[in-house]
Structures are given as structure tokens and as C-alpha cells.
Design a protein that fits this description.
313 residues; alpha/beta; Nucleotidyltransferase, domain 5; 10 helices; globular
């Protein structure tokens, strides 16, 4: 039984076909268009392309969105990046594609993928943080995705680690959320602030050329630039504060970090692990903190697994 998994991001849509062997596919990637129905039409085109010329028919589509999904109505409640507010995305795509559609938050699906096929395999209780432009999160509790009472749970990027910290982004009314302290957006902000105040440094000179963002700052940190490295270390320590709270709250078997920013590796995870081991309650600091295994494909693979399991396969 074949299904298609689709991961919708702010800038790109990745889709792949998952067969009965559950081997993660190579994704087909297209730019994310503007507007809810434009995204639906783009996904329908991908589904048609991936369904063509195969003796094994596609039976369902799973879609992950950077959104909160209302578990009662099945509608997209809110999505910063797609314009899908109070929108029946599953119904709209099902009508166009002519297939059953399963829908969930993208970070939930990344957690599902890591639990079933990735670094969380063999563990019943998994915490996943996805670090990118923002920060998402997913929870596996006793082998199942935790979604909360109405499907809005596990917004782990909005754990506040500094009650008087910077205002959060993306419409969140809180302050000092881990998303504001350790995301790609946060790193870019801190790199630029330092560069503005210190124009004679490497970061300052790079900023004068208009080239300072999270990627360029991380590249400097990897090359050993002390100022850039200090900023990344501080972000990692904030990550460790959040991980401490997650460990104390959920007592997981393993804590995983994925998303594009996880490419920083131990530059972020090392300081985070130090803080976590210092501050977590002794019984809960046993869970290893490590990188997720499926990389940027986790959301797509999780969407396909959701569809596969949704059909009872």
C-alpha cells in the first residue's frame, strides 16, 4: 500500500511516496506559493506526479503544516506562514486530489517519524525540538503523538525561559520564549546586534557588507571566531534551560534536536547539554540529548507514516 507524505514549509514543499517497505523516499521539492488554495493546488500537482506511472496505486495523502490543527473540527486553526486560518485544508485537498487526506502539525509529524524510523526508535517517550527560523516541538507519550485537548498542544518553542526577555515572534504574546532565544531568527538578531556595536570585528565587517544572518554567523562560529562562537554558546545555554524544563515535565526516554539549525551540532548541543545536566532534577537528567536522525525529511516521512497508519496499515 503506497501513500504520499507532504511537508509544507514557509519557503518550500517537500513530497515523497512511501511504499509498503516503509523506506523513506527521496523528496520532490517545489517553492511554497502564497495563499491557502495556491498551496492546495501545488500539493495536488505533486500528488498527481507522484501517483503517475505506477502499478501500485496511492491510497492516501498525509500533510504536515506549520500550523495548529483543531482536533475537533479537523480545520487549520492558525498558521503564520501559509495564510490558512480557520481553513479546511484536508477537505479542500481531498476534493482536488480525490484521495483520503490526513493532516497534522509538521513538528508532530517529525516526532512521529523519529519515533518510528529515526533516533527515537525503541523509545516510548520522546521529546523533539525542531530548530529553524522558529522552533517547533513534538511529543511522543507512551508510543503515541501527544496533541492536547484540541490539537494545539506541544508548542514547545513557546516555553518561556526568560520572563523579561525579548517579545516573541509570529503573533505569540509571550516574552522570552525559547523561539526568541535560540532560533535562527534569534541568532541572526544577536549576530547583527553585536556587529552594530562592534564594527571592527569580523562580524562587524561582515555586517557592513550586508551579509550577517544566522547562517553566516554560524559559519564564523564553526571556523572558531570567538565572538560568533560566544553568541552561539549563549543560544545553546538557553536551549539547555528549555530542555531542563522539558525533562522535568515529561521524564522522556530521549530528547532530540532536529531542524535546519541542528546542523550547528555540538556548538549548540554541547552548551545545552551542560546546562541540562547541571539543572535538571537528578531522576530526569538520564535522558540523552542528541541530534535527530532524519534531518529535513522528517516532516515528510512523518506525514506519510500518518497516512499509512491512518489507513490501518
Amino acid at each position: 500500500m503506497s501513500v504520499i507524505g507532504v511537508d509544507v514549509g514557509g519557503t518550500k514543499i517537500a513530497a515523497g511516496r512511501l511504499g509498503p517497505d516503509l523506506v523513506p523516499p527521496q523528496p520532490t521539492v517545489i517553492p511554497t506559493p502564497d495563499g491557502g488554495m495556491a498551496i492546495i493546488d501545488a500539493i495536488a500537482g505533486l500528488v498527481a506526479d507522484l501517483s503517475a506511472d505506477s502499478p501500485d496505486p496511492v491510497h492516501a495523502v498525509g500533510v504536515g503544516l506549520p500550523a495548529t490543527i483543531d482536533a475537533v473540527t479537523g480545520r487549520v486553526a492558525h498558521s503564520v506562514h501559509t495564510g490558512m486560518d480557520d481553513f479546511d485544508a484536508a477537505g479542500a485537498l481531498g476534493a482536488v486530489a480525490g484521495l483520503p487526506v490526513f493532516l497534522d502539525n509538521d513538528a508532530n509529524l517529525a516526532a512521529l517519524a523519529e519515533h518510528r524510523l529515526g533516533a527515537g526508535r525503541g523509545h516510548d517517550n520522546v521529546v523533539l525540538l525542531t530548530l529553524g527560523t522558529g522552533i517547533g516541538g513534538g511529543l511522543i507519550i507512551e508510543g503515541e503523538v501527544f496533541r492536547g485537548g484540541r490539537g494545539h498542544g506541544a508548542e514547545l518553542g513557546h516555553i518561556s525561559v526568560d520572563g523579561n526577555g525579548p517579545p516573541c515572534q509570529g503573533g505569540c504574546p509571550n516574552r522570552g520564549c525559547i523561539e526568541t532565544m535560540c532560533s535562527g531568527t534569534a541568532l541572526g538578531r544577536e549576530f547583527r546586534a553585536f556587529a552594530d556595536a562592534n564594527p571592527d570585528t569580523t562580524l562587524g565587517r561582515l555586517h557592513a557588507e550586508g551579509a550577517v544572518d544566522s547562517r553566516s554567523g554560524l559559519a564564523l562560529a564553526k571556523d572558531g571566531d570567538p565572538e560568533a562562537l560566544a553568541i552561539v554558546t549563549t543560544a545553546g545555554e538557553w536551549l539547555g534551560v528549555a530542555v531542563t524544563s522539558l525533562a522535568n515535565t515529561f521524564d522522556p526516554d530521549i530528547i532530540l534536536v532536529g531542524g535546519g539549525l541542528s546542523a550547528a551540532g555540538e556548538l549548540l548541543l554541547g552548551p545545552a547539554r551542560d546546562i541540562y545536566q547541571q539543572r535538571a532534577l537528578p531522576p530526569t537528567r538520564r535522558a540523552p540529548l542528541q541530534l535527530a536522525a532524519l534531518g529535513p525529511d522528517a516532516g515528510m516521512v512523518g506525514a506519510a507514516l500518518m497516512a499509512h497508519e491512518g489507513l490501518g496499515a
